[in-house]
Amino acid sequence: MRALTLTLVILITALQWPLWLGKGSWLRVWQLDKQVQEQKEVNVKLAIRNTALDAEVRDLKQGSAAIEERARNELGMIRSGEVFFQLLDHADNKTGTPH
């Protein structure tokens, strides 16, 4: 009787092993599900970024206002006849160093 019980325990353990710890185990399924959720979050962020970039590309293709805005903000360009004023904040000069 003891041999039969031991044989059944070994058989059940051998059958359960792949379910719990094998290649397609519950643990592996849980890990893959977690990876899928993380990838979905990354995909949502990338889709939002792609939408913003698509809108910017369309704006640059269609209008000169966007090109002018980028030239002014990023390159510091001004139109001919315009005067550029740069205001300095006095808070930057609180160290007491003379100019």
From TrEMBL:
Belongs to the FtsB family. HAMAP family: FtsB (MF_00599). It is a single-pass type II membrane protein. Residues 1-3 are cytoplasmic. Essential cell division protein. May link together the upstream cell division proteins, which are predominantly cytoplasmic, with the downstream cell division proteins, which are predominantly periplasmic. It comes from Craterilacuibacter sinensis. This is Cell division protein FtsB. Part of a complex composed of FtsB, FtsL and FtsQ. The gene is ftsB. Keywords: Cell cycle, Cell division, Cell inner membrane, Cell membrane, Membrane, Transmembrane, Transmembrane helix. It comes from the Bacteria. Residues 22-99 are periplasmic. Pfam families: DivIC (PF04977). The keyword Cell membrane applies. It is found in: Cell inner membrane. Its main location: membrane. GO terms for cellular component: cell division site; cell septum; plasma membrane. GO terms for biological process: FtsZ-dependent cytokinesis.
